[in-house]
């Protein structure tokens, strides 16, 4: 007997055409206030009891592994088939969302459901339905509504600062951590975006639902490294065309780390969400199965089947296994790349000349790490430098990360290259800082006047116990000074003659009494700062203390500075009800003492 179609119990399952582990389905309805979404998740907890042999196998494996030639499934085949979604009616964990027209999830409800009309589609079939002129079934209009919803969810995530990119034409999309990864050829269409955006919304809704009930689950937490640039810069990187380059992905991976599971909420940096979890793939990830057991127990009014301690043990086991597998994979890939680089180095000049930029960089990096290079590599570096084919990362490695006399001809050529293109020196020094975790420290002093701006610049790199400092370089602008200082630092680190130079003459040092008296139209703080910027005062320090009742304290400011010409230290203090007033009065007192000291000093001539 044919069942009457019921949209409330229907769901489209988008996956590979030959998929045997379909564990999520969705149905989207357009309503006047936005969209109503139903996400059906396979009720794996019903089929796999905690502590059963199948559960023990799933816990040990952690997740399903998809390899080019085979699939290592998390669950035994018979248990997976019994729990998977399909055409036959099956119990589900139902996540219902009400999404506003602006893409905001306004309400969420989780309950036990039943999928009676499961419609299996491949990504290509789902994408084709979006532009088909004639509907072949109720799923066609639904998919168009789902596509509009996915775009609204995506737009909201982008506005909120999520690290998200879909470049399906070139086959790249960001994973949850914000690092671009390749997308399978069959997924490079709009259906991929629909599935990703709906599942992210569902997972976030589950996390928030559990927080509202103070219900510990396996939250998915993601943090960023302390050396990461501001989020705005990472977003700019994601929109740049270079985002698919290996070096950019390597840098983002190092900065953005890997998300991990935990029973406490830690927030998710890549998605820019306060809370997130994995709940939509219980056939393929053990964390999703554990969370499903907890959520369905709460729906039934039962206590959680896991204690906080048990959740922590499960999270630690999954996180540890993920790190170990990642490390082993990384070592395999590095060893394979090193083996290829060795073969290419042995093959000589003809092989090196034919390498593309990425392959050449891998060869150069391998040789730099291992010692003396073959003459053919030094010749190829010089050839590429002459032809303008070296990337800044190549220059950084060959100039600053090599040792020995056999590298010297290449380093000398690259120093001349930087001397001809000083802005490139700043890039190379900054890149070296990124590679070593030693950010360049720039000291820029204004030593000129309004009529003739001059800046003295020094740059320092602290690499462990070694400190590299550039010569002090004078430029008519900060940019020019930075370029020459970076050029001098690169030469010093490479052990080569300094090609940097001053681009202007340094002014004569100030006379001992060259301290302006503050006037009624000049702020004393500004005057003190100007003297410091021009080198007349040094070691300037402002200290504040507060005393008196908490509702009406007095603030004392003490300013200390040393006269550059005489080496004498001067100290002045002032007290006022406002910190700003105390600072202004202390600055005025300091200037008075400087002026008085000048008046008392003996004069000649």
From TrEMBL:
<dbReference type="InterPro" id="IPR001900">
    <property type="entry name" value="RNase_II/R"/>
</dbReference>
<dbReference type="InterPro" id="IPR014720">
    <property type="entry name" value="dsRBD_dom"/>
</dbReference>
<keyword id="KW-0694">RNA-binding</keyword>
<feature type="region of interest" description="Disordered">
    <location>
        <begin position="501"/>
        <end position="521"/>
    </location>
</feature>
<dbReference type="InterPro" id="IPR050180">
    <property type="entry name" value="RNR_Ribonuclease"/>
</dbReference>
<protein>
    <recommendedName>
        <fullName>DRBM domain-containing protein</fullName>
    </recommendedName>
</protein>
<feature type="domain" description="DRBM">
    <location>
        <begin position="523"/>
        <end position="596"/>
    </location>
</feature>
<dbReference type="Pfam" id="PF00773">
    <property type="entry name" value="RNB"/>
</dbReference>
<dbReference type="InterPro" id="IPR012340">
    <property type="entry name" value="NA-bd_OB-fold"/>
</dbReference>
<dbReference type="InterPro" id="IPR022966">
    <property type="entry name" value="RNase_II/R_CS"/>
</dbReference>
């Amino acid at each position: 007997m044919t069942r009457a179609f019921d949209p409330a119990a229907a769901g489209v399952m988008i996956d590979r055409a030959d998929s045997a582990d379909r564990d999520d389905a969705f149905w989207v309805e357009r309503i006047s206030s936005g969209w109503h979404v139903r996400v059906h998740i396979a009720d794996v907890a019903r089929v796999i009891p905690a502590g059963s042999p199948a559960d023990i196998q799933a816990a040990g494996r952690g997740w399903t592994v998809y390899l080019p030639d085979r699939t290592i499934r998390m669950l035994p085949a018979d248990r997976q088939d019994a729990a998977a979604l399909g055409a036959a009616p099956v119990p589900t964990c139902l996540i219902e969302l009400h999404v506003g027209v602006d893409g905001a999830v306004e309400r969420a409800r989780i309950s036990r459901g039943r999928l009676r009309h499961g419609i299996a589609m491949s990504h290509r079939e789902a994408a084709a339905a979006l532009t088909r002129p004639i509907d072949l079934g109720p799923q066609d209009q639904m998919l168009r509504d789902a596509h509009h919803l996915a775009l609204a969810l995506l737009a909201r995530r982008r506005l909120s600062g999520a690290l998200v990119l879909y470049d399906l034409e070139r086959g790249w999309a960001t994973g949850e951590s914000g690092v671009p990864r390749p997308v399978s050829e069959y997924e490079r269409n709009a259906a991929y975006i629909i599935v990703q955006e709906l599942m992210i919304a569902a997972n976030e809704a589950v996390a928030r639902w559990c927080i509202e009930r103070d219900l510990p689950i396996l939250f998915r937490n993601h943090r960023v490294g302390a050396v990461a640039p501001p989020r705005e810069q990472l977003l700019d990187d994601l929109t740049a065309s270079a985002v698919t380059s290996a070096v950019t992905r390597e840098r983002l991976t190092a900065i953005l780390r890997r998300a991990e599971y935990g029973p406490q909420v830690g927030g998710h940096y890549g998605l820019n969400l306060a809370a997130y979890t994995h709940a939509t793939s219980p056939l393929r990830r053990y964390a999703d199965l554990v969370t499903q057991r907890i959520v369905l127990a709460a729906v039934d009014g039962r206590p959680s089947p896991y204690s906080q301690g048990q959740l922590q043990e499960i999270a630690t086991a999954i996180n540890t296994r993920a790190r170990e597998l990642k490390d082993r994979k990384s070592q395999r890939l590095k060893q394979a790349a090193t083996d290829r680089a060795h073969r290419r180095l042995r093959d000589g000049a003809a092989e090196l000349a034919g390498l593309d930029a990425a392959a050449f960089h891998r060869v150069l990096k391998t040789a730099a790490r291992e010692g003396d290079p073959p003459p053919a590599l030094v010749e190829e570096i010089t050839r590429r430098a002459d032809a303008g084919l070296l990337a800044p990362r190549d220059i950084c490695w060959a100039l600053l990360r090599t040792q020995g006399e056999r590298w010297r001809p290449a380093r000398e050529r690259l120093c001349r290259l930087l001397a001809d293109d000083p802005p490139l020196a700043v890039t190379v020094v900054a890149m070296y800082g990124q590679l070593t975790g030693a950010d360049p420290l720039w000291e820029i002093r204004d030593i000129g006047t309004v009529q003739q701006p001059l800046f003295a610049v020094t740059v320092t790199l602290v690499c462990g116990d070694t400190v590299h400092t550039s010569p002090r370089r004078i430029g008519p602008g900060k940019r020019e000074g930075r370029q020459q200082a970076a050029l001098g630092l690169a030469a010093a680190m490479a052990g080569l003659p300094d090609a940097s130079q001053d681009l202007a003459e340094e002014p004569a040092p100030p006379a001992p009494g060259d301290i302006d008296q503050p006037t009624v139209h000049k702020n004393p703080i500004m005057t003190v700062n100007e003297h410091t910027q021009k080198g007349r005062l040094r070691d300037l320090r402002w200290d504040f203390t507060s005393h008196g009742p908490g509702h009406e304290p007095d603030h004392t400011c003490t300013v200390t500075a040393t006269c550059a010409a005489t080496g004498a230290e001067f100290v002045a203090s002032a007290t006022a009800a406002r910190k700003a007033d105390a600072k202004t009065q202390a600055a005025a007192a300091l200037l008075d003492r400087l002026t008085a000291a000048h008046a008392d000093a003996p004069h000649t001539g």
